[in-house]
Amino acid sequence: MTPVTASLPTPTAPPIAVEYPDSDGQPMAENTLQFEWITLIKENLDWLFAADPQVFVAGDLLWYPVEGNPKIRQAPDALVVFGRPKGYRGSYRQWQEDHLPPQVVFEILSPGNRPGEMSRKLLFYQQYGVEEYYLYDPDSNSLEGWIRQEGILDWIETVQDWVSPRLGIRFDPSADPLVIYRPDGESFVSYGERSRQAEQERQRAEQESQRAEQESQRAEQESQRAEQERQRAEQESQRAEQESQRAEQESQRADRLAAKLRELGLDPADL
């Protein structure tokens, strides 16, 4: 009889967990000017979409478009995703975000950026579904833009007064530095400028409140004076009425006296 040999399962190695670092080890900005522009755009986009819970805005956040390949990544200086909730993320992993890529990205040039690097970024954004890409060089005040048409990111020939289809913001690169306008016509401002504006608005509101209080006090004083005048007029009217009544009483007494004298055969006119 041939002996039966039991086959044992071949051991398999446990799957290796793929790590997606939250940092690429690169600084957010190379100088203060670049940092100011990154924060200006990111903060104003935050304010612009603050009331919409389904618009996610981030700055310098690593974006991983392909699951299982952490080497494919990019960290736009600012990005906007429509259709994804606000909230904390260590990185943007597209397969965990309903496979939605950022629709709009911004890059701010610094002296350390090389043309080859920026070309690779443009190709990355084209390949992985970005709809609008804006590149600003604050040193030369130069703005370029690309918009997706027929499956590719097409260069925007004229960015002067260009209005972003997704964001509704308008660009004015003829101003130096660049001015970006919200849909309501207000320009993007820094946090410090917004704080100064808020303080000015608070002071104006306080001054208006003080003026309104003064007007209220003046109106109250006028009301009191009018009431005093009304009371004086009423008192004068009462005195006049009393004088009229006394005059009437005197007239009645005179009439009674005259009648009495006539009863006695005397003519009042002779007295």
What is the helix fraction of residues, given as a range? Answer: 25-40%
* Averaged pLDDT: 89
Count of DSSP-assigned helices: 3
Rg, rounded, reads 43 Å
State the major sheet: 6 strands, mixed
- What's the CATH architecture name of the largest domain? Alpha-Beta Complex
Taken together, the total number of domains comes to 2
What characteristic shape results from the CA principal axes? rod-shaped
Keywords, separated by commas or semicolons:
271 residues, alpha+beta, tt1808, chain A, 2 domains, six-stranded mixed β-sheet, two-stranded parallel ribbon, 3 helices, 10 strands, rod-shaped, Uma2, Putative restriction endonuclease domain-containing protein, Nuclease_put_TT1808, Restrct_endonuc-II-like
